[in-house]
Structure formats: C-alpha cells, structure tokens
Design brief:
By secondary structure, this protein is an all-alpha fold. The chain has helices at 3-11, 15-37, 40-56, 67-90, 106-125, 128-138, 144-151, 155-172. The chain folds into two domains: 1-97, RNA polymerase sigma factor, region 2, helix turn helix motif (Rna Polymerase Sigma Factor, Chain: A); 105-179, Arc Repressor Mutant, subunit A (Orthogonal Bundle), CATH 1.10.10. It is globular, with a radius of gyration of 17 Å.
Length: 179
C-alpha cells in the first residue's frame, strides 16, 4: 500500500495503518538508532518514543518528505537529544557504557558480538559529525543531500565527513569491507 494511503488511514485513526508503518520501518530505524547510541535498550527506547510521538501527531501530520526520511529524522533528533542530556548529566556524574545486541545461536552470537564490538569501538572513535554521516548513509540509507539538510550544512561538507569517516574506519578495521 502506498505511503500516502497509509498516512490517510492513520489520520482517520486506523491503528492497523500505524502497525503497518511500524512493521515496514522498525528494523531499519532500530539499526540506525543502535548505530548512533551503541546501546540496544536505548535504541529500542528511541524507536518507541518516535512511534509514540508519531502516533500522537497522526491527526495533524503533514509530511514534507517521504515517510522513511521523516522517521529517520525523528530517530536522529531523539538520539541527539539523548546525547545532549547525557552530556549535561556527565558534567555532574559519570555516564553509562554501551550495551550488547542479541543474536540467535551461540556461534553466530559470538561472531556478531566480536564484529559489533570492533565496529562500535571504531565508530566511537570518529568525531560526532562523521559518525552521524556514516551511520545515516550506511544504516539509514540516506543520500548526501538528505544528510546535509538534516545536519544543516552543505553537501560537500557531508561528503567530506563521510570520506574522512570511512577512511578512519578502514584504518581502524583492517580487513573489513566498508563501502
């Protein structure tokens, strides 16, 4: 079903439309949130908050972009808000460390945990702007123009952040395959 029809159904209070939107976008948005915050429970909280707000605003929702980009922007903004809160709290107390994702099967879980730990560590070493661009590009599937709009900067700046971020990740993760 088209996005436009789903949004119309959602505006009329159709909860099945919200469920369809959630099912269609939850995996990608959860991956994006996890890539930004490096903690699965926090990523799940962000996703939950985004969809609660989305459902609450459904009656007055006017999209200027596609639904995927709108929801991606919401996740990004929630993650940024979280970083701001943590930064404020960190000035008063120490922060929490990253959590772990879960995967079925012990061998698969071990391999995933090792690779995720390497990638999470490497991403954490990137400056925030580069980490955000790389995550939005690779996990969020956004184009440079869309990322530039989100970061309120120019496309060449976003492209440079992406290039420098990927170069640093390649140096930190030898033998890995990054696009």
């Amino acid at each position: 079903m088209s996005e436009r029809r789903l949004i119309q159904r959602l505006r009329r209070g159709d909860t099945d439309a919200l469920r369809e939107i959630y099912v269609a976008h939850k995996d990608q948005l959860l991956t994006l949130a996890y890539s930004l915050v490096h903690d699965m429970s926090t990523a799940e909280d962000i996703l939950h908050d985004v969809f609660v707000s989305f459902a609450g605003a459904a009656g007055t929702l006017t999209l200027r972009t596609g639904l995927r980009q709108y929801l991606t922007t919401c996740v990004l903004n929630r993650a940024r808000d979280r970083f701001r809160r943590l930064k404020t709290q960190a000035e008063r107390t120490e922060g929490n460390g990253p959590g772990e994702a879960t995967v079925a099967g012990p061998e698969e879980a071990a391999a995933f945990a090792e690779e995720a730990e390497r990638l999470t560590g490497a991403l954490a070493e990137l400056p925030a702007e580069q980490r955000e661009v790389v995550t939005l590009r690779l996990n969020g599937g956004l184009r440079f123009k869309e990322i530039a709009r989100l970061q309120e900067t120019s496309v060449p700046t976003v492209q440079a952040r992406y290039r420098y971020g990927i170069e640093k990740l390649r140096a930190l993760l030898p033998g890995g395959s990054l696009q």
